[in-house]
């Protein structure tokens, strides 16, 4: 004779597990980058001068281009790493 308590417990555990992962556990792709650029743009607007360091040149170029798009009023003051080399 099957133990009904163990069957009910198993069903309850599996439904809780499926409910827990029914929503997406991570933000949509690109969300963190968009938020990071918005926060960086606000930081730059609120400061007199800012230096942004990256670990690779391609990231510096990407950030520079993105900040020029987000901060058109400061585009002339944002240094392009390829000009510095």
In brief:
The protein is mainly α.
Q: How would you describe this structure to a colleague?
A:
The protein has helices spanning 4-20, 31-46, 57-70, 81-84. It is 60% helix and 0% strand. The chain is an all-alpha fold and 85 residues long. The chain is elongated.
Short key terms for the protein model shown above:
60% helix; mainly alpha; 85 residues
What's the topology here?
Blueprint: H1 4-20, H2 31-46, H3 57-70, H4 81-84
Helix pairs in contact: 2-3
Give the radius of gyration: 24 Å
Kindly report the average pLDDT value. 78
Percent strand equals under 5%
Number of domains: 1
Per DSSP, the total helix count is 4
Shape: elongated
- Mind describing the biggest β-sheet? none
Structural classification: mainly alpha
Q: Could you spell the SSE succession in H and E letters? A: HHHH
**What is the end-to-end distance?**
79 Å
Instruction: Please provide the count of β strands.
Output: 0
Helix % is 55-70%
Question: What are the segments in which pLDDT stays under 50 over at least 5 consecutive residues?
Answer: none
């Amino acid at each position: 004779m099957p133990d009904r308590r163990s069957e009910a417990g198993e069903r309850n555990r599996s439904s809780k597990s499926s409910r827990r992962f029914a929503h997406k556990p991570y933000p949509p792709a690109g969300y963190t980058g968009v938020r990071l650029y918005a926060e960086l743009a606000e930081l730059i607007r609120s400061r007199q001068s800012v230096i942004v360091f990256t670990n690779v040149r391609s990231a510096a170029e990407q950030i520079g281009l993105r900040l020029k798009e987000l901060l058109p009023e400061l585009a002339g003051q944002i240094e392009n790493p390829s000009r510095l080399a």
